[in-house]
Amino acid sequence: MNLTEQFDKAYVLVSELLSQREGLIEAKLKAEQELADNDSALRKAISQRDEMSAALSIVPAKPKREKKDAEEIQQEQQSRIEELEGKLATAEALTEPRGGSDFFGATSIAEDKGDYFLVNGVRKW
Q1: Quick check: is 116 in a domain?
Q2: What is the extent of the structural domain holding 42?
Q3: Per the structure, how many domains does the chain have?
Q4: What are the tens digits of pLDDT across the range 37-66?
Q5: Does 14 map to a domain?
Q6: For the stretch 1-16, what's the b/e string if a residue is b when 16 or more beta carbons lie within 10 angstroms of its beta carbon?
Q7: DSSP character for 53?
Q8: Helix or strand (DSSP H, E) at 36
Q9: Is residue 108 part of a domain?
Q10: How far is residue 76's CA from residue 90's CA, in Å, rounded to a whole number?
């Protein structure tokens, strides 16, 4: 193999390596952009959650009674049936720092003030 042929072969190999390098750089940039997009979406969701927290700051409550009357029992049973049939949706929310999904770890206190309950605690959002 003469010098020109060796040069041509080396040129082809270098061209292939540069092409592979460009592909790797493009894949790296794409992955970085996807990570940034996911981070941005997560930040947006957290921001929206924070904005909605004001609606959860007032918790209406009624005093617990010893016995339920027949109408209340029937209403609860009907609600459970509607939940199972998918006609009614219910939800619970916990807004305390470090609370996660542990409702039993909640530290907020509800004081019975007669006609209403005063809820004291720290909100996460």
Answers
A1: no
A2: 1-55
A3: 1
A4: 777 777 777 666 666 655 555 555 555 656
A5: yes
A6: eeeeeeeeeeeeeeee
A7: G
A8: helix 3-52
A9: no
A10: 13
